[in-house]
Design goal:
Blueprint: H1 7-34, H2 38-59, H3 63-67, H4 76-100, H5 106-134, H6 138-162, H7 166-193, H8 201-236, H9 238-262, H10 266-274, H11 278-315, H12 326-348, H13 352-377, H14 379-404
Helix pairs in contact: 1-2, 1-6, 1-9, 2-4, 2-5, 2-8, 2-9, 4-5, 4-8, 5-6, 5-7, 6-7, 8-9, 8-12, 8-13, 8-14, 9-11, 9-12, 11-12, 12-14, 13-14
Length: about 400
């Protein structure tokens, strides 16, 4: 059962499953507009952006640390138990934030809370997937993605069709997807690792302290995307945010497609680095980066050739006046994807403080430019802010990663 698969097969299985899941999540955003309205789409987008911040707390950004822990610094029992604790903390903080946010309607607040409930399924499966990745069996991850894609999309369609309610659709998504995580991923990892739950905060603190810098960095990376959309909703309203999200959603698939390329490389890269083979480490990063850039180039070409036709097919003619936003949104998504890409080698090399400094500069710039550009340029201001701030962040991380990968240079 624990026989290793090759890197190529792991990447294939993970990519197929991840792509299917991401397409299902993309269709959920499309159907929020089709079965509801642009306002419903904007409400879902608001829930996604806000819960992404609390998801960082729920997952505590332990995934890369866990998958690269090939020397067994912490046990599977500690990883799983700690993830359950941090998930509960993330959900509780999200609920408090939602109730206290008097600027939102109760429907918006419930949408945020219930979408966070669904995000807990991703937090738990993220922990299980890291153990499956360490066992070099990402075919299990792929199957989980397929099953969760079906349950989340199917339940969302039922909720919106039967009750015409976004909160009802979101709670149904959570209730139908959680059993997949528990009874499939959980049982597999239990057989492979024999983990036992132990909710001792004292025992979890060393892991949380070790992962704390990564959690802070991950939170800041999430904020780089969330801040411009937050200001767009504040200045222009939920419906405009819904229109922007409808156009930018295909870009999310491209961004996720980039993650399919580098996510399976975490454990192999970690092993290569700890063996001291810096040349092989740099070659692997360069090859993966080339693949990411080629994928982005194909996405941009497709958007230029078929973008208007595709948007019209999905959302109707009402979206066409804003179709020019598609290509800039893809470039913005690429900037964000490159940030997550370079996080992997920098985390393996323990350059967390450097990332923190880079992210702090980028966030400060994002807040300032969002307040200047978005009131004047609207949705175009969101993309321009991302190009300048997230793009600058990714460039700085990339240059630092390649410099540090040369022995004795930093």
């Amino acid at each position: 059962m624990s026989q290793r698969l090759s890197i190529q097969r792991n990447m294939l299985y993970n990519s197929i499953g991840s792509l299917f899941y991401l397409v299902c999540q993309w269709l959920i955003n499309v159907l929020a507009v089709r079965l509801g309205s642009y306002e419903a789409g904007g409400m879902l987008s608001l829930a996604v952006q806000i819960t992404n911040v609390f998801f960082v707390i729920a997952s505590f950004s332990i995934r890369v640390f866990q998958a690269s822990d090939t020397e067994g610094r912490f046990s599977a029992s500690r990883y799983v138990s700690t993830r359950l604790v941090t998930s509960a903390i993330g959900f509780g903080l999200c609920a408090v934030f939602s109730v206290a946010s008097v600027q939102y309607s109760w429907e918006q607040r419930w949408s945020i809370i219930l979408y966070m409930l669904f995000k807990l399924t991703e937090s738990l499966v993220d922990c299980f997937a890291a153990e499956e990745q360490k066992a070099w069996r990402m075919d299990w991850c792929g199957i989980s993605f397929l099953m969760r894609g079906v349950t989340s999309l199917g339940s969302f369609i039922i909720g919106m069709t039967v009750w015409h309610s976004l909160p009802a659709a979101l709670v149904l998504m959570a209730l139908t997807t959680m059993p997949v995580v528990v009874w499939y991923d959980g049982r597999i990892v239990k057989k492979v690792t024999g983990f036992k739950l132990d909710f001792s905060l004292k025992k979890s603190l060393p892991l949380m302290q070790a992962a704390w810098p990564m959690m802070v960095n991950s939170g800041m990376m999430t904020m780089l995307t969330a801040i411009p959309r937050y200001f767009l909703e504040m200045y222009a309203g939920t419906e405009i945010l819904g229109i922007y999200t409808a156009i930018a959603t295909p870009a999310v698939i491209m961004q996720a497609g980039c993650s399919f390329i580098y996510s399976p490389l975490v454990a192999p890269l970690s092993e290569t680095y700890h063996k001291g083979d810096r040349a092989a480490f740099r070659r692997t990063i360069a090859k993966a980066l080339t693949a990411v850039l080629l994928l982005a180039l194909l996405a941009v070409l497709a958007a230029l050739l078929l973008g208007r036709w595709g948007l019209n097919l999905l959302f109707g003619e009402s979206i066409l006046p804003h179709a020019h936003l598609l290509t800039p949104s893809l470039i913005a998504a690429l900037c964000s994807a490159l940030i997550y890409f370079f996080e992997v080698p920098l985390t393996i090399m323990q350059r967390l403080k450097s990332m923190t400094v880079i992210h702090l500069i980028a966030i400060a710039s994002t807040v300032i430019l969002s307040m200047v550009l978005i009131p004047r340029m609207g949705m175009d201001g969101v993309n321009l802010t991302m190009h300048l701030c997230a793009g600058g962040d990714a460039l700085a991380m990339g240059l630092w990663a390649f410099r540090c990968s040369k022995k004795g240079t930093c």
